[in-house]
C-alpha cells in the first residue's frame, strides 16, 4: 500500500527495540534454517549475504551478524528490509515450520507472543507515518493556498496597474475601447464565461457574460462625467429585446447621475449598475470577487428594485 511504500522510503532509522523485536520474531516464527533462509530471501536479503551463512552457524548467530550489517547501509535500504520483515511477521497467523514437533504448542505460543509484540510496534509506526503524511499534506495544501493567494494578488495588482495606466485617456474613444477590453480581462481572471463586443441586428453590444445560469449584456463607460439617463435608457432597451432570462450590467467608472440611477431602478429591474468604487474598493482590492459583487447587487435588486448598491451597504 501507499502508506507502506512511504514508510519503506522513510528517512528516519528504526529504533534498536524495533530491530530487536523483529529479530526475535524471526527466530520464534521459523525453527528450521531453510524456512528462515527462504523468508530472508523474500525480504531483500541477497544471495551473497545468505552465502555467508555457514552450515554450523546457528540462526541466532547469523541474525546477530546479519542485522548490524543491514543497518550500516548508507541509503537506509537495510532499515527498509528489516521493516519489510517486521510487516510480514506482524501479519503471520499460522506457523507451518513449527508444526509436527513434540513441543509444537510451546513453540507456536512463543511465536504468537513474539509476533504480537512486533505487531504493536508496526501499528505504532503506521500511526506515526499516517500522522507525518497528514502533516505533510496539510503543509502542502497550506503552501498551495498561499501560492494561489499570492498569484491572485499579483494578478489583481497587474489589472489595477493597467487600469491606472488608462486614466490619461479617460473620456476618449480610445480610452473607451481600452476600458472595455480591460473589463473582459477582468472577467477572464475570475474565469467568467464572457463574449467581447458584437452586433445583433444592427445593434452594437459591448459584450456579454454568463454567471450561474444568467446571461448579462454588458455596457461599459470610461467617461470623465457621470453616465446619464439617456445611456441607461438606451441600454435598457437592448436588454428588453433579449430573452426573458437576460439581464444587463452597466459599468461606468465615473458613476451615474441620480436620474440615471432612478431610470435603471424599477420593479423586477433587469439592470445592475457598477461604478469605480465597486471596481477599486471591492474587486481590485481583493475584498470581493467580481462574481461575488454581481451576485450581491443582483440579490439587492431583486429585493428592492434598486439597480445600484453602494459599497457602504455591502
Uncertain parts = 1-11
Helix content: 55-70%
Strand order of the largest sheet: 1-4-5-6-7
Q: What can be said about the biggest beta sheet?
A: 5 strands, mixed
Query: What is the domain tally?
Result: 2
Write the layout of secondary structure elements.
Elements (H helix, E strand, L loop, with lengths): L1 H7 L7 H14 L3 H9 L5 H4 L8 H13 L5 H14 L13 H61 L8 H17 L3 E3 L2 E3 L2 E3 L1 E5 L2 E8 L7 H12 L5 E7 L5 H7 L6 E5 H8 L6 H15 L10
Parallel strand pairs: 5-6, 6-7
Antiparallel strand pairs: 1-4, 2-3, 4-5
Helix pairs in contact: 1-7, 2-6, 2-7, 5-6, 6-7, 7-8, 9-10
Structural write-up:
The protein has two domains: 2-134, no CATH class; 167-313, Trna Endonuclease, Chain: A, domain 1 (3-Layer(aba) Sandwich). Helix content is 58%, strand content 11%. The two termini are 51 Å apart. α5 crosses α6, α6 (77-90) packs across α7 (104-164) and α7 packs antiparallel against α8 (173-189). β4 and β5 form a beta hairpin. It is an alpha/beta fold and 314 residues long.
Outline:
The protein is an alpha/beta fold. The protein is 58% helix and 11% strand.
Write a concise keyword list for the protein shown above.
disordered N terminus, 12 helices, two-stranded antiparallel ribbon, 314 residues, alpha/beta, Trna Endonuclease, Chain: A, domain 1, 2 domains, five-stranded mixed β-sheet, single chain
Amino acid at each position: 500500500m501507499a502508506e507502506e511504500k512511504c514508510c519503506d522510503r522513510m528517512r528516519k532509522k528504526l529504533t534498536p527495540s524495533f530491530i530487536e523485536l523483529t529479530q526475535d520474531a524471526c527466530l520464534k516464527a521459523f525453527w528450521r534454517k531453510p524456512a528462515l533462509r527462504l523468508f530472508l530471501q523474500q525480504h531483500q536479503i541477497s544471495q551473497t549475504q545468505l552465502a555467508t551463512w555457514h552450515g554450523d552457524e546457528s540462526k541466532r548467530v547469523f541474525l546477530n551478524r546479519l542485522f548490524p550489517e543491514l543497518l550500516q547501509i548508507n541509503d537506509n535500504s537495510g532499515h527498509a528490509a528489516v521493516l519489510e520483515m517486521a510487516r510480514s511477521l506482524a501479519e503471520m497467523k499460522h506457523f507451518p515450520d513449527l508444526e509436527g514437533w513434540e513441543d509444537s504448542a510451546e513453540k507456536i505460543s512463543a511465536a504468537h507472543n513474539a509476533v504480537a509484540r512486533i505487531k504493536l510496534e508496526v501499528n505504532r509506526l503506521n500511526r506515526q507515518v499516517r500522522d507525518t503524511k497528514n502533516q505533510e499534506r496539510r503543509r502542502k495544501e497550506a503552501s498551495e493556498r498561499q501560492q494561489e493567494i499570492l498569484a491572485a494578488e499579483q494578478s489583481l495588482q497587474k489589472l489595477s496597474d493597467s487600469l491606472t495606466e488608462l486614466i490619461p485617456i479617460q473620456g476618449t474613444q480610445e480610452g473607451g475601447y481600452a476600458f472595455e477590453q480591460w473589463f473582459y480581462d477582468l472577467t477572464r481572471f475570475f474565469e467568467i464565461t464572457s463574449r467581447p463586443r458584437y452586433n445583433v441586428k444592427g445593434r452594437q453590444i459591448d459584450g456579454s457574460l454568463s454567471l450561474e445560469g444568467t446571461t448579462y449584456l454588458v455596457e461599459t463607460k470610461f467617461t470623465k462625467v457621470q453616465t446619464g439617463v439617456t445611456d441607461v435608457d438606451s441600454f435598457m432597451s437592448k436588454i428588453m429585446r433579449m430573452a426573458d432570462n437576460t439581464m444587463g450590467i452597466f459599468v461606468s467608472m465615473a458613476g451615474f447621475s441620480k436620474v440615471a440611477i432612478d431610470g435603471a431602478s424599477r420593479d423586477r429591474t433587469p439592470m445592475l449598475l457598477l461604478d469605480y468604487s465597486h471596481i477599486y474598493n471591492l474587486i481590485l482590492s481583493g475584498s470581493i470577487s467580481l462574481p461575488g459583487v454581481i451576485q450581491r447587487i443582483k440579490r439587492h435588486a431583486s429585493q428592492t428594485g434598486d439597480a445600484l448598491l453602494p459599497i457602504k451597504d455591502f
